[in-house]
Amino acid sequence: ASIGDLIRHPDPTFSFEFFPPRNAEGEQVLWQTIRELEQLRPSFVSVTYGAGGTTRDLTVEVTERLATETTMLPMAHLTAVDHSVRELRHVVGRLASAGVRNILAVRGDPKSGVNGEWIKHPEGVLYAEDLVRLVKESGDFSVGVAAFPYKHPRSRDVEEDTKFFVRKMKAGADFAITQMFFDADDYLRLRDRVAAAGCEAPIVPCIMPVVAMGTIARSAELSGAPFPPALAAEFEKVAADPAAVRRLGIDQAGELCQKLLREGAPGIHFITFNRSTATREVWQNITGVRAHAA
Ligand code: FAD
């Protein structure tokens, strides 16, 4: 199935994001999580692409296993960092032969971090836009791209950010998934400015529930913007009680999802950090259905 088509369907999609495990223990945790979340029958699941070396092979391996050993529809993330066009085509070919037909084409960040100098591989591609074209030319793929509610840190302003986002869609992308954010208005502003630029891209919001105060501290790093101050104040009130922080985080994420869906968001993409509990709780909050874990 094409994720682009699912996202364009009137029923909202629900999807989960995993990262390739770093060791045997991580692998066990991931597969336990996958089995638990499979019971929620998500529309699709995605696996991020690592920064280099073996974790990249693992992205392909996990995605292949998802395609062949589970009932879920997998999407592989792919980045352009340190890859020649030939290598990129090889990865895309491997995914295709495992039956993976959905790819999230993102440029990736340099190893030195999000603001480090981005150096193109001498035989590689420069922007996500070029990666979208490469994947589209390689076969019948549904391709997603990244969208940034607070603009990408490298973009001068939101106008420039919107212009390049629209170019990426015009290069052949079928849908977009956002960077995580915590205030529905930030998503709605992104959607409005993309629509005002004449682009009808379906943009799926990405949500990560706060389960500890540390998430708030890392918000700028994770989302590209400080945590909304009014919401931070609510968390501060219960900061001494980790269980209360978690409860508030789950409730707040549930309310955010409900608002986004009421406002017509085409679905919700959950960052899971390879754990199932918080995601299941938010899910339950949205659907009102208690999910049964194995
Ligand atoms: P691009 O769209 O290429 O944009 C990068 C910058 O260049 C922007 O500032 C843009 O405005 C500018 N730009 C674009 N086109 C042009 C042009 N023609 N001329 C001049 N400037 C231009 N990273 C990973 O390593 N692995 C992952 O699996 C991964 N998954 C992600 C999933 C999602 C949903 C999101 C939101 C991000 C993900 N990332 C991942 C992070 C992503 O790789 C970084 O945020 C990266 O810095 C930007 O990627 P992009 O695809 O938006 O880049």
UniProtKB/TrEMBL annotation:
EC code: 1.5.1.54
Name of the protein described by the UniProt record: Methylenetetrahydrofolate reductase
CDD domains found in the cross-reference section: MTHFR (cd00537)
GO biological process annotation, one example: methionine biosynthetic process
GO CC terms of this entry: cytosol
Reaction(s) catalysed by this chain's protein: (6S)-5-methyl-5,6,7,8-tetrahydrofolate + NAD(+) = (6R)-5,10-methylene-5,6,7,8-tetrahydrofolate + NADH + H(+)
Pathway participation: One-carbon metabolism; tetrahydrofolate interconversion; Amino-acid biosynthesis; L-methionine biosynthesis via de novo pathway
Keyword annotations: Amino-acid biosynthesis, FAD, Flavoprotein, Methionine biosynthesis, NAD, Oxidoreductase
Keyword NAD: yes
Keyword Nucleus included in the entry's annotation: no
Family in the record: Belongs to the methylenetetrahydrofolate reductase family.
Cofactor list: FAD
Molecular function terms from GO: FAD binding; methylenetetrahydrofolate reductase (NADH) activity
Signal peptide limits: none
Native source organism of the sequence: Longispora fulva
